[in-house]
Amino acid sequence: MEFLIEYGYVGLFVAAFLAATILPLSSEVALSALLLSGLSPMMLIITATIGNVLGALTNYALGYWASQKAIKQWLRMSDSDFTNAQQRFEKYGMLSLCFAWVPIIGDPLTVIAGVLRIRIIWFLVLVTISKLLRYIVISHIVLSA
Length: 145
Description:
Largest sheet: none
Number of domains: 1
Radius of gyration: 16 Å
Order of helices and strands: HHHHHHHH
Strand content: under 5%
């Protein structure tokens, strides 16, 4: 993570992108470190949001185009887990994408959205708003401490 932080905005973008996939990275750590280093909070929030949304869009594309077998292996889900995830998503609808920022459940949500072929415009709007708000809140907490 230190390597990415050294590269400022570009490093944050990469960290945020990768963190939106199933890789165990924390864009919040990179964001916090860069906020404390004095870089522009607005630019950091925008950079992190764009990177994280593009990572989520990658998950959506995998869900859209990959086979269910490949997705289950990638997410380490059983058939019943996969079916339950689809049913929960269908039960709560597109608004469940407002939780795309939540660790552990967010990444599978964005993949399932692709599997279910949720309209891309709604996907982008809901995921962007939720991730933007998360980065604003984190920035406020870090800068207020």
